[in-house]
Amino acid sequence: MQVLRGLAVLCGALVGLAVSLQAAYACACCTHTGQRHDAVGPLDPGKRDEIGRLRFRPVAHLFTGEADPDMIKGIAAQSSQYNLRVKHEKGRWVFAFRDKNGRSGTLVLAMPKSIAVLEVDPRRGERKGGTGPSLYREWKLTSRAAGTGIFAPGMGETQRITLVLQGNGNSCASAGDFTHWTLAVSGPVARYHLFGELIQP
Description:
Blueprint: H1 2-28, E1 36-42, H2 45-52, E2 55-56, E3 59-62, E4 81-89, E5 92-98, E6 104-110, E7 114-120, E8 135-144, E9 146-147, E10 160-169, E11 178-186, E12 192-199
Antiparallel strand pairs: 1-7, 2-12, 3-4, 3-12, 4-5, 5-6, 6-9, 7-8, 8-10, 10-11, 11-12
């Protein structure tokens, strides 16, 4: 009888431990009102894996604001919309654009060693999964810009290209959190950006 009581106590303790561990894991993903994280850190394997799961919708737009597309410098043949193909090669992302007249070019982002991460509570009262407010999230990857075809005029030694992944979620980020992207070229030669949507993995 004492052995059975001992086993019952042990089982109860194990169940309690499992519940505590589950709660601790869930809390690691919790968010809090007013939360903000804005920092640059290593591009670790976990983030690399999530970025590798991203899929891009086949349409991209050139941001012009109040200007006309042909006023954007650094692109030989401007268009407000492009067909897009994105290829993830070893150590880089290749973005291939083609307009309705068949004019094309590529922009290439070499995978950097660091990543800029922004996570902030926009204080709109949105909740996700019962873990706290839904955070607005950006991951930014920057490298020296490389481009071909219609984008060649905007290239140079000091030109940079930044991929911005945008979305919402809790404190445990994954590819499924990201819904939109922006690809920005910046520097003294040219400054412009394209944008589009992501397909949920």
